[in-house]
Amino acid sequence: MVATTLERPTPVAPVGAAAKAAGARLTVEAVSHAFDIRGTALPVLDRVSLDVAPGGFVALLGPSGCGKSTLLRLVAGLEPPDAGRITIDGAQVAGPDPSRLLVFQDPTLYPWRTVRGNVMLGLEARGIAGPARAARAEAALRLVGLDGFSEVFPHQLSGGMAQRAALARALVNAPRLLLLDEPLGKLDALTRLSLQAEILRLWQETRFTALLVTHDVEEALVLAERVIVLSDRPAAIRADIRVARPYPRHRDDPELVRLRRSILDSLGQPI
Amino acid sequence: MASLTGYAGRLPRPAAGRLPGLPVRALAVGAAWLALAGATYGLPEEGDFPSTAAFAAGALGLGLGLPPLVVLSGRLGRAGTALAQGTPWLILLALAALAWELITAKFALLPMPFFPPPQAILEVFLDDGARLGGSILASLKLLAGGYLIGAGLGFVLGVAIGWSKTVGYWAHPVLRFVGPLPATAWLPLAFFVFPSSWSASTFLIALATGFPVTVLTWSGVAGVNKAYFDVARTLGASSTFLVLRVAIPAALPHVFVGLFMGLGGSFAVLVVAEMLGVKSGLGWYLQWAQGWAAYANLYAALIVMALMCSGLISLLFRLRDRVLSWQKGLVQW
């Protein structure tokens, strides 16, 4: 399969384009957030600070319900944080923006649109004209290995294929920060392995900044350059582990096995 | 009609089990219609029915024409398949007509003016066809006006209530208070408030259609998966885009349920309005026929009305199948 670059097809792009298309720097400064549940505040994030270098791949690991997904929603701009600051390349996040995209655990494809129609969604929403739109959608579908499926409706796709389509829907917009909210959480083990390799390849090819929420320790170690371990709710950072191993990584790598043990330890899990 | 949202699994179109071979069916259908022709023409009648010969000739024509068509149905494309599938019904139809013919015209087992024989109804179609046709047109015109206005306004109102908290705040209590009132209850009021009985009836039909369409559109829009909006918002969608490209398409299956319910309700109001105020249409025809004790006309009008309502429902199903072709497992009508 020939992979195609999405956003930078021709060298005549504006000068800043190449630099701009690379990953964004994400800074989270002392962010706290609480949910309002019938008048009582349920704190979910407690002064979380982290810094992700442009083009970096960081995994957020923590017990379920600890507020990882909330942090992603805040970074995506879907909700403002109660306290603290989130900045992208120094600019404070004020709302959703197509340069920061979320991929959810559910593919959340629109069932009334074909796969291509789903992938074109962001381009359509921003008023990008028809022919360019379709061509870019096709390129994105090729990138995730779904060429030939553009006319298919989502209910005809398997779980893994639907998640690939959801990835294409994000990548077609050339995001500079990709927020992955347990994107492989509902897939079977084999599909998960192949999509992990796929996400890694896409990241290496397009160099977006990636922030992955997962509760699969192995997944975090195989994919991320840094693994941040969060505590129980309200989530605070408990450990920040650098994974200095070359890609592609092997699950049985003794260094990864050691890290896995220490992470599970810090999560308070028996090994 | 089974489940209308279309979320149910694909129901197989009811097909006949194992049918006997084509030649057997061809013979049976021929025999049944010929028997009807023979009995109608040959047996003496209790009464004077001018169209007996025409009815017998029609049955004779079917008795002679159907068997070869059934035998050759394999080469007649889709119509042929439908004919081959439908032969048992054609046989049953002939036998039922025969029984009806014998009970009424031949042996006079039922009180006569109330239960006319088939040829009397045929006579209505032949002699009074123009007036019946005109009534259908009048009914359709009245229904279409009221239904389209009601469905359109109901849809817009439903989207507005589902989308905007302010609209919901003001519209919800009104809808709750007024909506469940049957549209026919407004009839006496409508006929003196509106300048003409036609506009009053249009209003009533629109009301009967509008309520279910509003409520179901509203519930459809309110029930759209919130993640769909999150997706669109992160992708840079404006609120217009969220309404037109996310909320409305996602709500359409519900909207169609509302449209079906509204259509059923509009039929009821149409007939009542025509019986009580409007001086045209099938409802008026029914009333008029009853007034003249023209019972054959009554039956003829009922048959026509059933065809009209069923046709309109089929049309709406067609529309839904086209618009919601992305749904899996649509119920076939």
Structural overview:
The complex is a heterodimer of chains A (271) and B (333). By secondary structure, chain A is an alpha/beta fold. Chain A is 34% helix and 24% strand. Chain A contains 9 helices and 10 strands. In chain A, the strands form 2 sheets. In chain A, strands 6-7-8-3-9-10 form a 6-stranded mixed sheet, sandwiched between helices. The radius of gyration of chain A is 19 Å and the shape is globular. Chain B is an all-alpha fold and 333 residues long. Chain B starts with 21 loop residues before the first helix and ends in a 10-residue tail after the last helix. The longest helix of chain B has 38 residues, at 239-276. In chain B, helix 11 (281-291) packs antiparallel against helix 12 (295-323). The chains are: A alpha/beta (271), B mainly alpha (333). The interface between A and B is medium-sized, with 27 and 22 residues.
Key descriptive features of the protein:
heterodimer; A: 271 residues; alpha/beta; Rossmann fold; 2 domains; 6-stranded mixed sheet; 4-stranded antiparallel sheet; 9 helices; 10 strands; 34% helix; disordered N terminus; B: 333 residues; mainly alpha; MetI-like fold; 75% helix
